[in-house]
């Protein structure tokens, strides 16, 4: 039980740290509404589950032994973050000056597309796989039976905790959007801010 509480504490610290996942959920909620942001969150959750599975089968070892595979995925992820940042910039500059409704400035592209954005954003982040590969084994006890079951429990905790945080960010983004309803200039600033942050993270990933 103590190990699980420590694991949960580590996850809370990670999910409270600003990163591309949090920014994408918040930005989508502000721009397109909380339901779209929740579709993004589901995509992120599926991707995290995939990272746990990949960590369990040892794909992170491939990154360690063949660095070019890690850098390939890293650069693809950076390019995708830059693309998402450009999307926010493009929408921010195209917003008209007349008042906007509280529900959405970005044209809705559908829940499936938002789900795919969340899935791709996390899957193309090799640091998520490295994180799972480093953190999870610390809470696995080989001397106990059922190692696969231990991995499954940790994976469930990781995915559900992330989903709770992402849903919370989706609601917070909605509240922020509602508070600035009718102010097109403020919405333009919001979109440009999310564009800057995602672009900055993308450049940092590309140059790291």
Helical percentage: over 70%
Topology pattern, helix = H, strand = E: HHHHHHHHH
Mean pLDDT: 81
Strand content: under 5%
Number of domains: 1
Low-pLDDT sequence parts: 96-107
Biggest sheet, open or closed, and with what strands and sense? none
Helix vs. strand class: mainly alpha
Task: Tell me about this structure.
The protein has one domain (22-144, 181-207). The protein contains nine helices and no strands. The radius of gyration is 18 Å and the shape is globular. Helix 2 (20-32) runs antiparallel to helix 3 (34-57) and helix 2 (20-32) crosses helix 8 (147-179). It has helices at residues 2-16, 20-32, 34-57, 59-65, 67-94, 111-123, 126-135, 147-179, 184-207. The protein starts with a helix and ends with a helix. It has 208 residues and is mostly helical. Residues 96-107 have low confidence and may be disordered.
Brief characterization of the structure:
This protein has 208 residues and is mainly α.
Keywords:
208 residues; 80% helix; mainly alpha; single chain; globular; 0% strand
Set down the secondary structure blueprint.
Layout: H1 2-16, H2 20-32, H3 34-57, H4 59-65, H5 67-94, H6 111-123, H7 126-135, H8 147-179, H9 184-207
Helix pairs in contact: 1-8, 2-3, 2-6, 2-8, 2-9, 3-6, 3-7, 3-8, 4-5, 5-9
